[in-house]
Amino acid sequence: MKAQTRLIPSLLAATALSVAAMPAHAEAATDAAVQAQLQDYKATMQAFGKTLKGELQAAMKEGGPMAAVQVCNERAPEIAADLSEESGYTLRRTSLKPRATEPTDWERAVMQEFEARKANGTPVGEIAWHEVTKVDGEKQLRFMKAIATEGVCLTCHGQDVDPKLKAEIDRLYPDDQATGFAEGDIRGAVSISAALKD
Ligand code: HEC
């Protein structure tokens, strides 16, 4: 089994790098594997959103935004790390105007394209992207989905964040760029990547 797993990348390399040059059956197999893994990515992403939103809303209700900021500060990266460990995928959130997580070059390019799609009238909720790419000789499936700014987000990401709260955010994130958003803007994106299991 192990030997077989190790064989797969070299087989793929020997076949072809581009999908266009692959035999039809190999292309179909890859496409099915991509679709299956994307479904799994989406489930992981939804689990992340549900857990974080639940904790954020509970903290807001109990202790207001000053308490909720601690949830985002500590729990958002923890939940992402836990889900990444459980699933074997790398899950993170990033933004063109980040608070905590600077995008990589490819994540930045994808999010710039998301802004162009939004400007062309695509609803933010429908904006997503994926690609299969080779990273260090391994086929990887990368996925990103835009995150819309909702009313509740404006407390900490809006145009007039309460000065006391903004001071706390600046203490935690001296390079914060993640304010000035309006409802409906793209706040950032979820990014998930892992080796393609095919
Ligand atoms: C109580 C304050 C607060 C609220 C409300 C809040 N956030 Fe954040 N947000 C933060 C903090 C703090 C971070 C940095 C934590 C991290 O992700 O490591 C953050 C980070 C993020 C990031 C990660 C990218 C980056 O900038 O580093 C995204 C995306 C994001 N928030 C989206 C949202 C959305 C969408 C909402 C509304 C549904 C929301 N936030 C509501 C405080 C808040």
List keywords for this structure.
single chain, 198 residues, alpha+beta, four-stranded antiparallel sheet, globular, disordered N terminus, binds heme C
Task: Give a concise summary.
This is DUF3365 domain-containing protein. By secondary structure, the chain is α+β, with helices and mostly antiparallel strands.
Describe the protein:
Keywords: Signal. This is DUF3365 domain-containing protein. By secondary structure, the chain is α+β, with helices and mostly antiparallel strands. It has one domain. The chain is built from five helices and four strands, in the order ααβαββααβ. The chain has helices at about 1-15, 25-85, 105-120, 155, 165-170; strands at about 90-95, 130-135, 140-150, 185-195. Strands 1-4-3-2 form a four-stranded antiparallel beta sheet. α2 crosses α5. The longest helix is centred in the N-terminal third of the chain and has 64 residues, at about 25-85. The protein is globular, with a radius of gyration of 19 Å. The relative contact order is 0.16. The model is unreliable at about 1-20 (pLDDT under 50). Bound molecules: heme C. Heme C binds near residues 98 and 188.
